[in-house]
Amino acid sequence: MEREDLGALFARITRRLIEAERPLLEARGLSMWGYVVLSHLSHRPASTQLALARAIGYDKTRLIGVLDDLERDGLVTRVPDPADRRARIVELTPAGRDRHRDARDDIGAMEDAFLGALSDGRRAALRRTLAQLAAEGE
Asked: GO terms for molecular function, please (predicted)?
């Protein structure tokens, strides 16, 4: 049997995960990119909009709409950067932290079900391996 390319395998798995995450995020009032922003800010606060766009790999002009939605919902704030008044620092609000935590918990439960056929040891090994591969690309 011919071995399937890693890219094809990852693409299929990624599509399945995205489709499983989408309704969970929608139930929490978040878009996929909104969740990405909240996730980034929960680990690395006080990022300028430009730095945030670069960090998450998203177009800076399209990020404005995502941030507008998150700010309107009280999940982030944008304040002028004291070092550059033209730039805005994006910060997670307590409501944003709570919403992110709830969505992350929902996604964690879905991932546990998704990986349900694997033993605990294989799940842990998979997560370690994926984290290592992801870190090598940064």
From this structure: DNA-binding transcription factor activity
Whether the full predicted model's pTM is greater than 0.90, yes or no, is: no
**DSSP 8-state assignment for residue 137:** T
CA 16 to mean position of chain CA atoms: 16
Q: CA-to-CA distance for 107 and 101, rounded, in angstroms?
A: 10
Quote the Cα angle for 69-105-128, to 5°: 110
Closest CA to 87 of 110, 54, 119, 111: 54
pLDDT single digits (tens) 26-80: 999 999 999 999 999 999 877 789 999 999 999 999 999 999 999 999 999 999 9
The closest of 128, 100, 126, 123 to 113, measured between CA atoms, is 123
Residue 127 makes CB contacts below 8 A (sequence gap 6+) with: none
Instruction: Give the pLDDT score at 132.
Output: 93
- Residues near 53 by Cβ (< 8 Å), separated by ≥ 6? 59, 60, 63
Domains of the chain: 6-136 (1.10.10.10)
